[in-house]
Amino acid sequence: MKRLAFKSFILLSVIYIAFIALGLPDALLGSAWNLVREDLSVGLGTLGIMTVFIYIMSIIATFNAPRLLRLFETKWITFVSILFTGIALILMSQVNEFYQMLFFALPLGIGAGAIDVSLNHYLAVNYKASHMSFLHSFYGIGVTLGPTIMAYTLKDEQWRLGYIIVGAILVFIALTVFLSMPLWHKERHVKSDHVHIPLKEIVSSRGAILSMILFLLYVHIESLLGVWISSYIYIEKGVSYSVAALFTTSYYLALTLGRLVSGILATKLKPSLLILAGEAFILLGAVLLFVKLDYWFYFVVAGLLGFGSGPIYPNLMFSNNFHFSKEKLSRIISLQMVIGYMGFGLLTPLAGLFFDRVSIAFYPVFLISASLLLVILTVKYLYEKPILIIDQK
Predict the structure, then answer these.
(1) Least buried of 24, 139, 173, 387, by fewest C-beta within 10 Å?
(2) What is the pLDDT of residues 161-191, one digit of tens each?
(3) Predicted TM-score (pTM) of this structure
């Protein structure tokens, strides 16, 4: 019995580490963009094109994830996805033209989409709400570590070295997943839980469309913060490359803390309360960006925005267990993530285009507008569920 418990602990640890791998690349380019765009001779808004490429691939992978889960077990999807992502990052460090970076962005998006759905579904089915929050806090560790490494290498203006280091870490994590293969039990539910259900039936499920809109708005807000906060501080507050990158680190460090706290509180507080509290923190932080003080004050604001972001995504994801039937679960999750990726791949690049053509000074306005709409629709979503299944622990 002790041996079995030890193996289960090791397996859960490997799954958590895999989510570190998922987060590592996400904020790299945003934190380094002020130097990268000068090195490759492209404009500020060009980052939006890169985001579109990555998330088109993520959408394709995410939408087809239920098919992958019918054919392959989670452990193999995880291993291959992390390995491809690591190799892609190392290759991206060698580019000399922006179009080359776009080419190597393709496996980044595919890898992220495949692993995200498979592990989210695996945790939603097999573990409690606290584990879902803890899992996403490990994503936060990865997405904090990435820009931290980049900030260190940017001291010597070496963004390429940052990509090499992160790529090498991902290859090492992929090997760790491969070595853990014997610990993974065969997923007997793979085929039966991922049966094909017509898209029309999924979309017509009660609460499905509104839940997708919530994911769209939240992911857009998170990407606005992760992708553009460094550039906003660099341009509007006049700090150095490395200091600007640290604002991305601060945001994701606070996001990680928020998810850890969410995991601890998940056994005591209702998911709906954690979601709404997080959204309130984000709205407050967005408003505080208008306050004009020394740049150190904005580290506090970035922390507030990150802490508020922490509980939202994992609690929305876990609540799917109580909203939708088991046979629809992987399909619902994949659609939510597809729509959510549009927040990254469509809304955020459009915002970047606006910042490039008009001014990034309007950045706080975008955050406040999106955050306020998210709060309103979340309340509507909960109100339309009179039984409030989402509040079950």
Answers:
(1) 387
(2) 999 999 999 999 999 999 998 887 666 554 4
(3) 0.74
59 in a structural domain: yes
Tell how far CA 296 is from the center of its chain: 26
Q: What is the pLDDT of residues 3-16, one digit of tens each?
A: 767 777 888 888 88
What is the rounded CA–CA span in Å between residue 308 and residue 137? 13
From residue 276, how far is each of 138, 265, 297, 379, 381 by CA, in Å?
A: 22, 14, 25, 8, 11
Count up the domains in the chain and report the number. Answer: 1
Asked if residue 273 is part of any domain, the answer here is yes
CATH code for the domain in which residue 353 is found: 1.20.1250.20
Residue 4 within a domain = no
Task: Say what the pLDDT of residue 390 is.
Answer: 39
In a domain, 7, yes or no: no
